[in-house]
């Protein structure tokens, strides 16, 4: 899977997670379709996809044994690094530490890791 395809997988997994876990009606930006996703966000999604893919490869497949929380933390940390890359002074919510994220976002991040894991086999 190319990084561009991985970025799209990331975004589609994010949207699916938001729809599944977000309490109430999510902000429109949370569920913006891929075609309307800003370029910086596409780049960030591709970078995080690639980090997860490489992490899985470098672990020899053993990263599958991580807990759901560990998988979620990995995605959240990789995303935070992208926020610092793309924004000089990101909003605090964009770079919050994992324990400070809302539960819906923690669950969504875990699902993203799992989707990438399933895609790269």
What attributes characterize this protein structure?
121 residues; mainly alpha; 0% strand; globular
Q: Can you characterise this structure?
A:
By secondary structure, the chain is mostly helical. The chain has one domain. The protein has four helices and no strands. The chain has helices at 3-21, 39-58, 68-86, 103-120. Helix 1 (3-21) crosses helix 2 (39-58) and helix 1 packs antiparallel against helix 4. The protein starts with a helix and ends with a helix.
Short description:
With 121 residues, this protein is mainly α. It has helices at 3-21, 39-58, 68-86, 103-120. Helix 1 (3-21) packs antiparallel against helix 4 (103-120).
Series of H and E elements:
HHHH
In helices, the fraction of residues equals 55-70%
Mean pLDDT: 95
Assign the structural class, choosing from mainly alpha, mainly beta, alpha/beta, alpha+beta, or little secondary structure: mainly alpha
Number of domains: 1
């Amino acid at each position: 899977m190319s990084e561009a395809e991985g970025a799209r997988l990331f975004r589609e997994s994010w949207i699916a997670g938001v729809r599944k876990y977000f309490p109430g009606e999510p902000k429109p930006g949370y569920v913006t379709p891929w075609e309307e996703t800003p370029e910086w966000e596409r780049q960030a999604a591709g970078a995080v996809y690639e980090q997860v893919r490489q992490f899985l490869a470098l672990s020899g497949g053993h990263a599958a044994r991580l807990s759901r929380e560990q998988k979620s933390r990995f995605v959240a940390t990789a995303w935070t690094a992208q926020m610092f890359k793309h924004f000089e002074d990101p909003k605090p919510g964009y770079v919050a530490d994992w324990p400070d994220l809302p539960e819906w976002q923690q669950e969504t991040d875990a699902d993203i890791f799992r989707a990438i894991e399933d895609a790269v086999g």
